[in-house]
Amino acid sequence: MSLLSQKTINKDISFKGVGLHSGLEANLTIKPSEPNTGIIFKRTDIKENNIIIPNIFNVSSAIFCTTISNEMNISVSTIEHLMGALYGLGIDNALIEIDNYEVPILDGSAKIFVEEILKTGIKTSSVPIKVIKIEKKIEFADEKKIISIEPSKISLDIDFKLKYENALIGEQRNLIKVYESDLTDIYNSRTFCLYEDIKKLREMGLAKGGNLKNAIVVKDNQILNEGGLRNSKEFVNHKILDCMGDLYLAGYKIIGKIICTKGGHKLTNQLLRKVFKNDENFSLLEIKEKNLPHAFINKSNLRSIA
Ligand SMILES: [Zn+2]
C-alpha cells in the first residue's frame, strides 16, 4: 500500500449545526468515494443540478467566507474549514452531502471535522496521488494585502502574517509546513471577530449564527470567550486554516511556498486564478513511489501528503 496513494474515509460521517452567517441549521454527511473523483458537494435539499465542485473558478463569493456555486447558481458557503481539514488529513476523494446552503460552523474551527474523520478512519487506495507543483513565483496584491506563491522542493509552506489595529490581536506570524508540521493548533483555531464589527456584520445579513461558542470575540483588550484562546497564535493559525482550505480548491495538493500578509479568502482565490491562467506557472505530477524525487525519500517526515 503506497504512502502516496489516494485516500477517502472508511464510512459516512454526519454533522449537524447552524451556519455562521445564515444561522440556518444544516445536516452534512461526508461519504467515502472512489479514487480520482475528488471532493464533491451535493445539495440534497435540491433535486436537480445539485452538484457543486470546490474549484477556484467556482468561487462565487470570497468575502467573509468562501462560497462555491455551480452554473445554475446552486451554492454552498463557508466550506473553508471543512476543506482545510480534508487537505490537512490528506483526504483526496469524498462526497459531501448537505441539506442547506451553509456548512455548519460547529465550534468555529476544523477541530470537530478532524476528530470525527480520524475516529472513523482513513481508507487508502492503490491509485497514486496527483500534486500541483508550482514552477514560477506569482504574486497578487490588493493595497496592503499581499500574497505570493513560489516553488518549493516538496513541501507546502504557509508563512502568514496578520496585522490588526486592535492591540490584543496586533501582529501575529506563523510558518507551517502543511505536510510535516503538527497541525493540531491550526485545526483547533477558531474564527474571530471584533466586538465592534458584530453590529455591522449583522446589518449586512451576516454572522446570524455567530456566538461565543463558535467564534472568538475580541473587545478592546479582552477576549469575551470563557477560557480565552486555545493557543497563543490562534488568530493567525485560523487564517492559516482558512488558507489551507482555500488552497485545496486548486483540486490537488500543492507543492509550493505561500507568503501572505493580511490575506484572506479573496486574496488566496485571486492568487490561484492567476497561477492557473498560465500553464508555465505549474505542473501536475502523478506521484508514484518508483519515480519519487530524491527529496521524497524521507517519507516519514511527510504526514499528510502521504
Ligand atoms: Zn475561517
Radius of gyration: 18 Å
Strand fraction: 25-35%
Give the helices and strands as they follow along the chain: EEEEEEEEHEHEEEEEEHEHEEHEHE
- Uncertain segments of ≥5 residues (pLDDT<50)? none
Mean pLDDT over the full residue set? 93
- Number of helices, where a helix is a run of at least 4 consecutive DSSP H or I residues: 6
Strand runs, count? 20
SS class: alpha+beta
Description:
The structure is a single chain. Helix content is 19%, strand content 33%. The protein has 306 residues and is α+β, with helices and mostly antiparallel strands. The strands form 5 sheets. Strands 11, 12, 13, 14, 15, 19 and 20 form a 7-stranded mixed beta sheet that branches. A 5-stranded mixed beta sheet has the order 2-3-9-4-5, covered by helices on one side. Zinc ion (ZN) binds next to α1 and α5.
Short description:
The chain has 306 residues and is of the alpha+beta class. Helices cover 19% and strands 33% of the residues.
Q: Which labels suit this protein?
A:
306 residues, alpha+beta, 7-stranded mixed β-sheet, 5-stranded mixed β-sheet, 6 helices, 19% helix, binds zinc ion
List the helices and strands and how they pair.
Blueprint: E1 5-9, E2 13-18, E3 25-32, E4 39-43, E5 51-52, E6 59-61, E7 67-69, E8 75-77, H1 80-89, E9 94-98, H2 111-120, E10 122-128, E11 130-134, E12 138-142, E13 145-150, E14 156-163, E15 171-177, H3 184-188, E16 192-194, H4 195-203, E17 216-219, E18 222-223, H5 234-247, E19 253-261, H6 265-275, E20 282-286
Helix pairs in contact: 1-2, 1-5, 5-6
Zinc ion binds near residues 80, 81, 238 and 242.
